[in-house]
């Protein structure tokens, strides 16, 4: 099944034992320490007295890489992070607290690896909604920073190393600050990185956004920021709440792309704003708000795309259902079809024998011969035409929507049920029709509806005249199929599965299918848009 | 198969005119005088002008179905043999075609030519016989027919007289008239004539 977000892309596992060296993996692993260090340094403006940073992009880089290449590379990342931190002097080899500091560096990637392994395990084994993308990634994105922050909190409490002032600070603050920083880093950095890195076309594909929609989402988002700007002067701690709503709206309307733009723009405003602030509470509130925005907006974007995909999925399944229904109709019509075929076949058999006899005649009559040959030719063409019609009707191929001449389609349909009509003693009356009258759609599916309506009418009233009517208006064409109903009127409460399918086809063409009974006649009416293709 | 000087007349009815004409031509090549019709109505009209010996008709037709057509045909001319052909054979209609509608055969399309020819030959012979018998019986008075009917059941003159409450002498007079009009002199010939006329003697 198609995946719903970049996080769901189950990467082909990288294999160390593979015969050829995976240079992509090697490059990623070699680049990682530098990317990590850069992201680590980018976090410093948001540091505090007793916490490292309220926005830690290095966590995002780490999570993205581990999610992509698999948790079993955790030890490699631990070694790399320890090396780069030692080499750049963040921790001092040989110093009195070196081992403790090494542990302080290693505990975060270890926690991340553990939680990613857990999330992947759930994705593989669980049958609950947690296993459906993008939930496993969401789990990892929240669980990994959580475990890392708690580990760090208790570690520092037990073996203070980073800052000597820490023991005097509440453990909870350390944990919360760590958590907010990592969460923000993960949510802002990892999804775009994974999207860039994915090779899965379905995952890469973003929802197409129309100009109107983009303007609408941008307006809502900008209005949110306008409100936030006003609020910031009075109540900075709740200032970004309106932006939260605006960003979620952008995600809902424009999918993941809208969500990312909203999140990145918000981060681009909030992070520089909070960096110079001295009030911890406001910084906390802003970063927490941004984290909440990132989670909610991202989910909204994924949700919007999932809905579109679900709709596409349903449309595809509908087509399969329509085809199954067509085959059912064909089976029901098979007796009539045999009749339709055996008729010309009888003529063919008689005429070929005749020709055979003539060929042995020393002086065959040329006129007689020509007559027979013409007849054979005509019957063969008729059979070929019938076979073509039936084949396309029963075939798997879904034709592209195309302009259809209504009159021609109705004549074809009446022809296809002709044999059955005869056996039921029904007459099908076709009105004279304007040849220019066209609709756009899937001809085979529309034929299916009409066959269904005609057959239902004939079965409901054997021996009667089935009237086909066509009504055209500026923007729509309505085809009526009417049959007399014996009184008292039988119960037509259920429309049968065939008519349910017919109705679904009509819907898919932007049309309607209705039924009414009046003055002793049951009438089904199929309305279709007159020229426009129906699929928007 | 048929006398070239006096060919049997076969009418073919099918609402597929090509098939009707093909069947008619096929029979024509085997020495019959044939004519094809698109609708039963057209054929019924023609039957009044020149009665056919045998009728080959489709069962499923838009205008009138083959069985209803056969009933009309029988009412109009009891001496015509009817052969049904259908592209939609079912057991029940096959049984009905013979038992209820007096069909001689029930042919599936595409048509088995040999079987069609055999059925038509049999039908033509049966029809000529019945038509001849009916013609011989035509001059009889109603009373003579009653007497003939009893004689054909194997009754003696005395038994017939008792059954019809007439004197044996009167019965003898009727019998002489019957023999004179039909030319069937022996009791066996009388029985055969009655059978032929009723269509039970093929």
TrEMBL record, chain A:
PROSITE patterns: HIS_KIN. SMART domains: HATPase_c. The chain crosses the membrane at residues 51-69, 130-155, 175-194, 214-231, 237-252, 257-275, 281-301. GO terms for molecular function: phosphorelay sensor kinase activity. Keywords: Kinase, Membrane, Phosphoprotein, Transferase, Transmembrane, Transmembrane helix. SUPFAM superfamilies: ATPase domain of HSP90 chaperone/DNA topoisomerase II/histidine kinase (SSF55874). InterPro entries: HATPase_C_sf (IPR036890), HATPase_dom (IPR003594), His_kinase_dom (IPR005467). Residues 336-532 form the Histidine kinase domain. Pfam families: HATPase_c (PF02518). PANTHER family: HYBRID SIGNAL TRANSDUCTION HISTIDINE KINASE C, TWO-COMPONENT HISTIDINE KINASE. This is Signal transduction histidine kinase.
Automatic annotation (TrEMBL), chain B:
Keywords: DNA-binding, Phosphoprotein, Transcription, Transcription regulation. Pfam families: GerE, Response_reg. CDD domains: LuxR_C_like. Residues 133-198 form the HTH luxR-type domain. This is FixJ family two-component response regulator. Residues 9-124 form the Response regulatory domain. The modification 4-aspartylphosphate is found at residue 58. The keyword Transport does not apply. The lineage of its organism: Bacteria, Pseudomonadati, Pseudomonadota, Alphaproteobacteria, Sphingomonadales. It comes from Sphingobium scionense. One of its GO terms (biological process) is regulation of DNA-templated transcription. The keyword Transcription regulation applies. One of its GO terms (molecular function) is DNA binding.
